[in-house]
Specification:
2 copies of one chain form a homodimer. In chain A, strand 3 and strand 4 form a beta hairpin. The first copy, chain A, has one domain: Orthogonal Bundle (Arc Repressor Mutant, subunit A). Chain A is built from 5 helices and 5 strands. In chain A, the strands form 2 sheets. The first copy, chain A, has a 3-stranded mixed beta sheet with strand order 4-3-5. With about 140 residues, chain A is an alpha+beta fold. Chain A is globular and about 50 Å long. Chain B binds a DNA duplex (25 and 25 nucleotides) through helix 3.
DNA sequence: CTAGCTGCAAAATCTTTGCAAATGC
DNA sequence: GCATTTGCAAAGATTTTGCAGCTAG
């Protein structure tokens, strides 16, 4: 169903992809919906969700399922890590390289076939650090 | 609000904690609700959610926000990794030690104050491996 | 042409919350 | 006694889906 071999480039899909690649803010579906509506005022949120799934299945973007209640999307489909601010929930790319030693750890786990791992750093962003501690 | 200094040990909270510690299946709130109802048939799902938050804030259990749509809970509050089966969504404890080299990586990230990280392994569990590939 | 896509709206899923009554300490 | 907790039910937040009409290739 999501193996999407023939897949059509509709204006909606094109704009969604363009807008997502324009930013590095890792927007949620709803945030992207707002961005895309500037160019396509009649688009529906359902279309945004459907296209994000399809683009993810096609490896053109990635879906980030980080430790917050909603999913975020990243126009950069390359493997890289993210840091999430525990106060404001902002997500930025981490500048560390993908760590090869982790792969060695993976080998130690025997009874599962390990496909990969998901690593997310948690921290406090510069902006939030300057604020008086929440409240 | 969730700093829970005075906190009361109600029968509901006690049973929730006991049932969660009894298993290593990392149940969701709803799964735990079913388990707990065997002993407390009148308990409400809201109470289960509220207690899971409080127990998490108290460090007695941990909330797992892994890459699936719902949150799971772990009666073992110690730091450890998890492996999630990408087919059946089962979550098991990973037998690798918590990797200290990751802490070195953390240091390289400058502009955030890094608090920690969340690492989850993704794989296919033995049971699912034996099945014909999903469908 | 026609399989795939869209907008719309309703539904599904998971979680939180307001409230009045109950209760642990 | 009284702050905390409970059950209930309604609301909230996010995501998915059925459907009839539309459209890219």
């Amino acid at each position: 169903m999501l193996d999407q071999l023939n897949f059509r480039m509709t204006p909606q899909r094109k704009v969604i992809l363009e807008e997502l690649r324009k930013v590095n803010t890792h927007p949620s579906a709803d945030e992207l919906y707002v961005m895309v509506r500037r160019r396509l005022p009649r688009i529906s949120l359902g279309t945004v969700y459907r296209n994000l799934e399809i683009l993810t299945a096609n490896g053109q973007i990635q879906k980030l399922e980080l430790g917050s209640s909603l999913k975020r999307f990243d126009g950069n489909a390359e493997n890289h890590y993210h840091i999430r601010c525990i106060r404001c929930d902002r997500v930025v790319d981490a500048s560390v390289d993908f760590d090869p030693t982790l792969d060695r750890e993976l080998k130690k786990m025997s009874d599962f076939d390990i496909i990969g791992y998901r690593l997310e750093f948690i921290g406090i962003c510069p902006a939030c650090r300057k604020q008086p501690p929440s409240g």
